[in-house]
Amino acid sequence: MTTIDSNVTQIEHHGPSPDSIGAILVAAGKLNPRDTARVMELQQREGWRFGEAALRLKLINERDLVSALNKQYDLPELLPDNDGASAELVTAYQQFHPRTEELRALRTQLLIRWFKRPETHQHVLAIVSPNGGEGRSYVAANLAVLFSQLGERTLLIDADLRNPRQHRIFNVPDRIGLAAVLAGRAGLDAAVAIPGFHNLMLLPAGAPPPNPLELLSRPALPTVFTSYLDDFDVILVDTAPALRYSDAQAVGFRAGSAVVLARKDQTRLADTHRVVRDLGNSGTRVVGTVINNC
């Protein structure tokens, strides 16, 4: 069995510490004092973690343990049968899934190459890919969840004004969004909090405008970024396919930094090179390229 428990402070015979997995399971009614004693006896005899010992004794299931871990680390908890956000949010629904670990590795690289770089004056990052269907919105949404789990105040902006998806992924209304903000018909309060997620808000694209590129090219966009940076540590921006439209270049230039996504066995290498070159020529710092293999 794969151990999915976290490092837990050693539990003495007098009972679990208040913030331990054991105490959380007891408070949730998943274990009683007699069960706890059995778990601690097996834990100390075999050298297992508390959660693993409880699983081995079949006193809890993996969902119980994941829920306790979420409470211990103050992480958003979404169950697979949740009827709210999309199952694409693997980082929230399945925190020990291989895809989640890969996305955490990407977050770590971004922390090193982008977020903590001294020359990065504003923490705005455009998520760009050459074409549609390459996982750009999926990666942007999950990265937003992961940054918020670090305690970073995170804003996800859907700047794909042609075929927006973030409102569907997070299951929020999109009647008012970025398009209305850029047109001066809405204020910064158009960004909405996501139920069940800490430190995470979304500015959806809003109603599709007739002139997406013109809106994104206005001076209003950098003003929006600057204004939101007063309240957020990280701003991630989903974009339209870069080879179909010039929207991504306009957003990348104003964001200052971008990461380019390509899909394994789908995205042509020449297309990726072209997008990286075009972004660089427009003055955007390309933090790196990501291969999406799912």
The coarse silhouette is elongated
The rounded Rg comes to 22 Å
CATH architecture of the largest domain: 3-Layer(aba) Sandwich
- Overall helicity: 40-55%
Separate helix tally: 13
Number of strands: 7
Distance between the termini: 25 Å
Order of helices and strands: HHHHHHEHEHHEEHHEHEHE
Strand content: 5-15%
Q: Taking all residues together, what is the mean pLDDT? A: 87
> Quick one: biggest sheet?
7 strands, mixed
CATH class of the largest domain: Alpha Beta
Low-confidence stretches: 1-15
Strand order of the biggest β-sheet: 3-4-2-5-1-6-7
CATH superfamily of the largest domain: P-loop containing nucleotide triphosphate hydrolases
How many domains would you count in the coordinates?
A: 2
Task: Please identify the structural class as seen in this structure.
Answer: alpha/beta
What can you tell me about this protein's structure?
Helix content is 41%, strand content 12%. The chain is α/β, with parallel strands linked by helices and 294 residues long. It has 2 domains: 21-73; 90-292, Rossmann fold (3-Layer(aba) Sandwich), CATH 3.40.50. α2 packs across α3 and α6 crosses α7 (136-149). The longest helix has 18 residues, at 98-115. The chain is elongated.
Short description:
By secondary structure, the protein is α/β, with parallel strands linked by helices. It has helices at residues 21-27, 33-46, 50-56, 62-73, 90-93, 98-115, 136-149, 166-170, 178-182, 212-216, 220-228, 247-255, 269-281, and strands at residues 124-128, 154-158, 192-193, 200-203, 234-238, 257-263, 285-292.
